[in-house]
Specification:
CATH class: Mainly Beta
Oligomer: single chain
Helix content: 25-40%
Mean pLDDT: 96
CATH architecture: Sandwich
Structural class: alpha+beta
Radius of gyration: 18 Å
Number of domains: 1
CATH superfamily: q2cbj1_9rhob like domain
Strand order of the largest sheet: 1-8-5-10-3-2
Low-confidence stretches: none
Number of strands: 10
Largest sheet: 6 strands, antiparallel
Order of helices and strands: EHHEHHEEEEEEEE
Distance between the termini: 40 Å
Strand content: 25-35%
Length: 205
């Protein structure tokens, strides 16, 4: 074959665990609402920077250290992070892998999260707690997009690997992982119900 594909970008998507997700997500949703109610600093920051929604990113971003519910979630997520790292052929022998940040995002109708990446981490991700039908997914950008220069547009029926963007649907109970340098966004929630997710970063030493 004259053409081969190199420098691939991998995205991991899997259910957190095979059973018990409904109960876990009910507990997480209750705690997310309590956090929003009690986090005055987070509400003020969100009013300026996360219009229409709520995030604890700037106020309570280490929930795995302060909540037993989120600590249990971290243990489940770590299994998937290690599996993803093996699939990427990362050499973690003799190294520790740990969650550095963990925060919640509550997006009612119309709330959006602009294009961004996660510096100072090697794997980042999202766990979905509440995903009303039709809510926005997680949209990823081809990391080479700013280098396409004079390239013509892609055909509407382009193969998935050749498209400039890909969107993973939001599904309650599912964890999505990606390398932290990969830019991503969540477009405006078109539903009237809240979309609730937990975002996180992992590092190594």
């Amino acid at each position: 074959m004259p053409t081969r594909t190199w420098f691939s970008t991998s995205i991991y998507s899997e259910l957190l665990k095979p059973i018990g997700l409904t109960r876990l997500n009910d507990e997480l949703a209750d705690e997310c609402h309590r956090i929003r109610e009690n986090d005055a600093g987070g509400r003020r920051w969100s009013a300026k920077n996360y219009r229409g929604g709520f995030t604890s990113y700037a106020s309570m971003a280490e929930l795995h250290r302060t909540s037993s519910t989120f600590a249990a979630l971290e243990k489940r997520i770590r299994t998937h992070v290690l599996r993803f790292a093996r699939q990427l052929d990362m050499d973690l022998r003799g190294r520790s892998v740990f969650m550095t940040d963990c925060w919640i995002n509550i997006m009612p109708g119309g709330a959006a999260h602009g294009l961004h990446l996660h510096p100072l981490a090697f794997v980042s991700g999202t766990y979905y707690v509440r995903t009303p039908p039709g809510c926005s997914g997680l949209k990823f950008e081809d990391p080479r997009l700013d280098r396409f220069m004079a390239a013509p547009p892609r055909r509407a029926d382009a193969r998935p690997g050749n498209r400039p963007f890909v969107t993973y649907p939001a599904e309650a109970g599912r964890v999505v992982l990606f390398e932290s340098w990969l830019r991503h966004e969540v477009t405006a929630n078109p539903t009237e119900q809240e979309r609730i997710s937990v975002s996180f970063n992992y590092s190594w030493s």
